[in-house]
Specification:
The protein has eight helices and no strands. The chain has 188 residues and is mostly helical. The longest helix has 23 residues. 28% of the residues are buried.
Length: 188
């Protein structure tokens, strides 16, 4: 039986989650297709490496499939999935050697053909400086900052996703902003 419900409605999502929790692989496949792009984007931003991010997202979806019968639906499926992906990424970040890769910022788009070579070099240097500054953040600060500033999640959603208090989220985002501002002060 093919699952064909209007995409994007809350009822549709709930139905898919219930059916997937009952073992319906097609329903879970729809959820994976629907949420994969956002989860991959989140993982890339957190890990800075596409291959690592793809592995983390794949692990997260496998874990979600296994744990779906236990999902209580007291939060949105996307929030629950954000939490799983974030935890997978945090585990990977914590297991890395202290010196993180400098390519943690996504590759910049090709410069405009009318842009000067000096401007292109300056832009690349600024991106490298940001990558180093991001690598210097603790994994916990980095996750909170990315979820807030790049994913646009509310502090409450971040607290729910990461499993910490609202006050802890605010503190981590504040410290991350302060560190990044100090590190990037030469680029203002």
């Amino acid at each position: 039986m093919t699952v064909r419900a209007p995409q994007g409605t809350r009822t549709d999502e709930t139905l898919l989650v219930v059916r997937a929790g009952e073992g319906d692989e097609e329903a879970f496949e729809v959820l994976v297709r629907r949420h994969s792009p956002a989860m991959l984007q989140l993982a890339i931003r957190l890990l800075g490496d596409r291959a690592d991010a793809e592995d983390a997202v794949q692990d997260a979806f496998v874990s979600a499939w296994r744990k779906l019968p236990e999902f209580r639906r007291d939060a949105a499926f996307s929030t629950w999935l954000h939490r799983i992906v974030t935890n997978r990424c945090l585990n990977r970040l914590r297991s890395r050697r202290p010196a993180a890769a400098l390519d943690t910022v996504p590759e910049q788009a090709a410069p405009d053909h009318q842009a000067s070579p000096a401007r292109a070099v300056e832009s690349r240097a600024a991106a490298d400086a940001l990558a180093r500054a991001m690598a210097d953040l603790s994994p916990e600060q980095r996750v909170c900052w990315v979820l807030r500033e790049m994913q646009g999640l509310s502090y409450e959603s971040i607290a729910d996703t990461v499993g910490i208090s609202l006050q802890a989220v605010r503190g981590r985002v504040f410290r991350a902003r302060r560190s990044l501002t100090e590190a990037m002060s030469a680029w203002r």
